[in-house]
Amino acid sequence: MAQLADLAEILTGVAPASGRGSDARFVQIRDLAAGQRDLAGGPKPTAKRASPIAAHDIIMAARAERSLAIRPDDGLLGAYVGVDLYLVRPDSNRLDPDYLAAFLNLPTTSWRFGAMAAGTNPPRIPKDAISELDVPTPQLARQRAIGQLARCIWKYRELAERRLRADLELRERYIEQAFARTG
Fold first, then answer.
1. What is the pLDDT of residues 105-163, one digit of tens each?
2. Chain centroid to CA 12: how far?
3. DSSP β-bridge partners for residue 81
4. Which residue among 35, 65, 85, 177 is buried most deeply as judged by most CB within 10 Å?
């Protein structure tokens, strides 16, 4: 086991600055759900901690009922995380990003964060709670296997949700057509 701060860089998000320019995109908590994105725009942030999202990063909600950590898809790469998010950048020599995202989303991890969260509703998970989180560190090959399994499960869930949405839309069309034929 090692503390997350020893295995990854953890950056707090930044608020989109007001003013001219929209050369930067900003991810907010609501953008973590695939297919429901409306990234905010604004000038490129000047804060030292501001770093564009890279392929091996993890985006984690700072305010949530439970832990919510995702791996960025192509639509999020290059954007900046907003104030209610953390950007976790694992050391690729020590930690597989999919493995870490799966660990951060475990119910037991969520429970730990929930116990340390404070403030308004939903409560904010302090950066120290994330930094001091003990992460099991099996060999990278084992981490990659667990990470790939988690990635398959996430993809399956995403496809199942898309199928369900399509099924519901189709059923609604059938009902609309049935009513159109009665008139």
1. 998 888 887 776 666 677 788 899 999 999 999 999 999 999 999 999 989 988 998 89
2. 13
3. 27
4. 85
What are the φ and ψ backbone dihedral angles of 158, each rounded to 5 degrees?
A: -60, -45
The CATH code of the domain that includes 68 is 3.90.220.20
Rg over alpha carbons for the chain, rounded to the nearest Å, is 19
Asked if residues 69 and 104 have their Cβ atoms less than 8 Å apart, the reply is yes
Task: State the total domains in the chain.
Answer: 1
Q: Which residue has the tokens 């759900």?
A: 33
Q: Which domain holds residue 23?
A: 2-180
Distance CA 167, CA 13 (A): 37
pTM recorded for the entire structure: 0.83
Q: What is the pLDDT of residue 20?
A: 64
